[in-house]
Amino acid sequence: MKLSSISIIFFFATLQALSVLQVNSQSTDSCNSNLNLDLPFDTSLLNCLPVWSRHDFILRYVRNLSNVWNFVLSAPDTNSFVAMGFSTTGQMVGSSAVVGWVSADGSGTVKQYFLGGQRPNLVVADQGNLTIVENSTSITSRSSRVYLAFQLNTSQPLSRVLYSVGQIRVIPSAPGFALAEHRDKVSTLLNYRTGTSASDSQHSRLRKSHGILNMLSWGILMIIGAMAGRYFKQWDPMWFYSHAAIQSCAFLLGLAGIISGFVLEDRLNAEVDTHKALGILILVLGCLQVMAVFARPGKESKVRKYWNWYHHNGGRIVILIAIANVFYGIHLGEDDGTSWNAAYAVVISILFLLSIILEVKLWRQN
Ligand SMILES: *[C@@H]1O[C@H](CO)[C@@H](O)[C@H](O)[C@H]1NC(C)=O
Ligand SMILES: *[C@@H]1O[C@H](CO)[C@@H](O)[C@H](O)[C@H]1NC(C)=O
Ligand SMILES: *[C@@H]1O[C@H](CO)[C@@H](O)[C@H](O)[C@H]1NC(C)=O
Ligand SMILES: *[C@@H]1O[C@H](CO)[C@@H](O)[C@H](O)[C@H]1NC(C)=O
């Protein structure tokens, strides 16, 4: 009895030790270890970063020549394909991927696939939009990991990068090399300059915050604040305090929104020059308004007339540019921005109608 329970304990202890070994062997690669692979290109100067922690994917890359980029993707060897895709939208459909696997006999295959659609017959081997340098691809299995290496001939690879891993023990085969559906995939953003990679969902949250902050501050609150300043003068001095309070609030929120825009641009490596320029212009005009408040001449002063003219028209210009930039930002940031556009358009229309009514009232009073 005793002996058997000891042997059971021994059995489980051994299992435990083996599983620890297994875990250790799965992480034989890290960014601290050197690549000892026989690759067609130099691997000593590669940037290295973990890109998909769930599957322990590690990416190494460097710009070799002005138009040649070296990539080595390392992943646990699970007898399945590994893939690295480049996408313009972050979606699989329309992307091109470098896919590699090692067959049971130890031979490796690397192919480019074009992902024309969700159905398997739309995923075609030996097609796609990546210019892979001739004879630069290889895939090697070493210490329970596979190393997929390739060179791209491009001045700048796309930063929306997808990774996927195939079903265990299912690898594509001749003649069509049809790609069975992946076991798992992730969509990321790779900043080649800073060497950072982040999951795309994080950015979609940041994108949303950026949109909501700016829409709310410059695009909505500023208008309400301006209306308080223009139409509620009969409640003196309440109109002044509410106008100042709303505009200060809007300015601070808007400042946060614009800063989030800079962060977003940097993380996404986005090409949003016009949107950014308009944002900066809005911020500068907004700052001028804030400064003007402090340089406000007294009510009886002769120049007060000019100051009023400047303050009112400056404010109108900020609001008009802001409205345009909110719509433009939605266009840039959302594949399908219909609901955002509609929601914002409804708010703007209500404010517009309200100000027409109040404007008419104002004229009647005078
Ligand atoms: C750059 O790529 C070329 C062409 O594949 C190769 O001959 C050369 O060794 C590479 N240089 C480095 C530093 O990797
Ligand atoms: C990308 O490659 C696919 C398949 O080779 C082709 O049908 C498509 O037109 C290409 N797209 C671009 C933008 O070159
Ligand atoms: C990259 O592409 C250009 C133009 O297609 C070609 O002239 C050049 O030789 C290519 N470079 C490599 C390393 O294949
Ligand atoms: C690529 O490999 C093939 C077969 O080994 C060879 O015939 C061809 O010349 C190579 N191309 C280059 C550019 O080295």
UniProtKB/TrEMBL annotation:
It is found in: Membrane. GO terms for molecular function: metal ion binding. Residues 55-166 form the DOMON domain. It comes from the Eukaryota. The chain crosses the membrane at residues 211-232, 244-264, 276-294, 314-330, 342-363. It holds the Pfam family DOMON. GO terms for cellular component: membrane. This is Cytochrome b561 and DOMON domain-containing protein.
